[in-house]
Amino acid sequence: MDDADITATANGSPFTQVPIEIMISVGRARPLVRDLLRLRRDAILPLDRKVSDPVDLYVGDRLIARGELTELEGEQAGQLAVRLTEVADFGDGL
């Protein structure tokens, strides 16, 4: 099946109208339980990534893309978004 066949099949499918949830992973924290129990408002929990590191996009447990965090402008100023830098090959579906 070539790219045109995949596009035609996807565009004709009713499933293309079903919304999905994409999880964006910006990093992980691994505090000790005692430190977790001490967390209060305004506490800072360091992550294993830097602000400039890429974020991972998942559907379920499947990594589908990577990107960088960005801030929208105009009417949506201040809202976070992701600019995609890598996208998985969906030739075989999700």
How do you describe this structure in short?
With 94 residues, the chain is of the alpha+beta class. The chain is 16% helix and 28% strand. The protein is built from two helices and four strands, in the order H-E-H-E-E-E.
Strand content: 25-35%
Calculate the mean pLDDT score and round it. Answer: 87
- Helical proportion, percent range: 10-25%
Taking all Cα atoms into account, the compactness measure Rg is 18 Å
- Main sheet properties: 4 strands, antiparallel
Poorly predicted parts: none
What does this structure look like?
- This protein is an alpha+beta fold.
- 16% of the residues lie in helices and 28% in strands.
- A four-stranded antiparallel β-sheet has the order 1-2-3-4, with no helix packed on it.
- It is extended.
- The model has no long low-confidence stretch (mean pLDDT 87).
Features:
alpha+beta
Write the layout of secondary structure elements.
Elements: H1 3-12, E1 23-25, H2 33-37, E2 55-59, E3 62-71, E4 80-87
Antiparallel strand pairs: 1-2, 2-3, 3-4
